[in-house]
Amino acid sequence: MNSADVEKLEDVIVRSAEQLAGSIRAARQAVSTVIFGQERVVDNALVTILAGGHALLIGVPGLAKTRLVETLGVTLGLDAKRVQFTPDLMPSDILGAEVLDESAAGKRSFRFIAGPVFAQLLMADEINRASPRTQSALLQAMQEQHITVAGARHDLPVPFHVLATQNPLEQEGTYPLPEAQLDRFLMEIDVGYPDRDAERKILFDTTGAEQTTAKAAMTADTLITAQRLVRRLPVGDSVVEAILTLVRSARPGEGGDDAKSIAWGPGPRASQALMLAVRARALLDGRLAPSIDDVLELAEPVLKHRMALTFSARAEGETVTGVIGRLKARVG
Q: Which ranges of the chain does DSSP label H, i.e. alpha helix?
């Protein structure tokens, strides 16, 4: 590609970013009018969707995790469906199933009835309450954007995102997500308690005669355009090196003194996730290229669920967050 082509491509990216910036800002503002005191959570959820990924929201009950997902569906103009995960939920309850039909002439044939997975935004509520068999039903959908039932392939809508919620408490009667499924989530987003002022706003907004409702700020087509633009944003060599250094140092044997604490670490999918996430964060902030600050900001939600510490490290009080913090300090 010669210099003229490069300049032309840069002009196209700049124009596209300027056109989309207003829609993205409007979506961010629309969500913030319904969800109070969770700015970082909202931003990370939007970054995940702009990057074309899936997110796992973890927090105690009553922190608006479910409402956040519902709000995102309305704000981004997506067809959203919700599945309440329970121990007796079957894979067919999510994917769909084939039923035997008989015509008026007596001819029998199978017909596929689509499950709730055929949505642009699927909310998997309390995903860790379902059995491993049911959890694994989402693996192919989350990675390949299609499912296979009775040997037949069924493509999912575009875009397709899974936002799952998980309660860190009440671990009895739950099934921890396997590493293969955790790796499918671009981010693990911790939902914390709101501050005092935000909780005051929540009190007045949710206990009055009228409650603030979400309003559409984007369409699915606009979101798809933004997702394509994210993949075209340029990434500087210093940012690429920061991503590689950070992810590789989080693996056993490659993290210096911290390697002794790590039982297993992130694979190449983590590097891909971080590369897309920093681009999406730049676009969300109205910038045309990500920085090392983006890498450091998103390192924890992208890497935390892709790592595990050794038994001895946990016995000494070590945490994954602490290890990632030290690895970030080396990069920053």
A: 3-32, 39-50, 65-75, 91-95, 132-135, 139-144, 179-182, 196-206, 220-230, 237-249, 268-284, 292-303, 311-315, 320-331
Does domain 235-332 fall under CATH 3.30.230.10? My reply is: no
Edge-to-edge strand ranges of the sheet holding 80-84? 80-84, 121-125, 161-166, 55-58, 187-190
Give the model's pLDDT for residue 170: 62
Sign for the pseudo-dihedral over CA of 274, 129, 190, 332:
negative
Q: Would you tell me how many other CB atoms lie within 10 Å of the CB of residue 78?
A: 23
Please give the Cα distance from 194 to 53 (Å, whole number).
26
Which of 98-102, 220-224, 252-256 shows the highest mean pLDDT?
220-224
d(CA 203, CA 306) in angstroms, rounded, equals: 36
Q: Tell me: the pLDDT tens digits for 114-164? A: 889 999 999 999 888 888 888 888 888 888 888 888 888 889 998 999 999
